[in-house]
Amino acid sequence: MSEPMNGAESLVRTLVAGGVEVCFTNPGTSEMHFVAALDRVAGMECVLFLFEGGATGAADGYARVADKPASTLLHLGPGLANGWANLHNARRARSMVVNIVGEHATYHRQYDAPLTSDIEALAATVSAWTRTGTRAAEVAADGAAAIQAARTAPGRIATLILPADTAWQPGSGIAPVPPSPERARVSDDAVAAAAAALASGEPALLHLGDRAVRGAGKRIAARIAAKTGAKLLAMQANARIDRGAGQVPVERLPYPIDQAIAVLAPYRRVVLAGATRPVGFFAYPGKPSVLTHPDCETVTLATPEEDQVEALERLAEAVGAPDDIDVVPPPRPELPGAGRLEDDAIGRVLGALMPEGAIVCDESLTTGRNFFAATHGAAPHSWLQLSGGAIGVGIPMATGAAVAARDRKVINLQADGSALYTAQALWTQARERLDVVTLIWSNRAYAILRGELANVGAHNPGPKALGMLSLDNPPVDWVSLARGYGVEARRVETLEAFTDVFAHALARRGPFLIEVAL
Description:
17% strand, 3 domains, 518 residues, alpha/beta, single chain, acetolactate synthase activity, Rossmann fold
């Protein structure tokens, strides 16, 4: 007679049957029965990280590329806390994630063992759905409900807390996953209000986010713009934009507040399609929180929870937009010759060499602000950005994206300061032999914060202030660090060397890191 299925195995089998095929994990004692179940159940890929922030960031990157949830396996409250920052980013990106968080056995919690914490309270800050299992016979149904919640539009984080005894006691078998609700259809009034805003005769902006910045959405938006004269602009931070040759080129709202205000100043009507209202990333003395002109009217066509593509189609019909348009993107940039290793030249190298189908994971921050414009004419690719502002997502996000699409080259555009938060994910890239090229912009500083000193009015910073923004005492040796994690690496100090080494890295498979000395 076969051994009965325990709660952990019933949960894993439910996850697999529900289409969750990857578990990004850093487990501990409380999760050992789940770990054992992963070994017994076919169909679940297991990817180990040395730090929970790597696992949660990878789940975010995976969901953005695969358009379906991965699971994480985290150890109690402290493990969830270690992964919290990148769950914040995933929530802001509206990524689908199913967290499994181990917990003390139900009867053990009363003794307040050292790792005891209020996991539900911590999980609730980033999760749309949170539940603590109470009976092994119900754990599979709990898992099915978590999958349903994660798949609810526009994509959500669901956290199932799994007490150890509900994992090792007899379970109930596989539970079916209820269907998730479809994206809501926008009202006729919303379409009419957007059409009226675009027909007002006032300068108008169609502000795009979520599914509206992918292929079909952008093309419909461009048809509307061709008819109405509205300007197209993407949000400053986007979970994923489909770009390159054949795609409608759309610029993003700049991050620096003065630039953003200047870009939005001409418009008196802003129509939101999957985007949120343009507001400052932070509050700055003497500067507005809402970045549009004081006389600007903001109209919501479709929220991220609603069907933006269908809404854009109805808006196109309402304004009499043409059935199609010719898309003439900028030409693919030519490789620069000899010159300085500066942002514009680096952007041209990226645009010239980026292979078709590449996935770009962008946590460039200061250095990469000009890369977007330089790559409109590159080969077709997807561009993923830091969406929640919590730095340290770039290397894990690239790792998860590479797991989701092992046949596509992943290029990680990475600021050096934020890379140090989760550099351990390079080890996972080596372990999994993932096809990721990491470009470290080695300016040895938190350069973005130097600009913020001026933006917030903190003038005349002294040596203490500047010392807290510097990474050059001692400098980080990225080549040695990467090689220590098992990743081949090179340092380049000239534009010619960067071009040659980047071309070499793109031509091979497997992880490769280039430290670009700026």
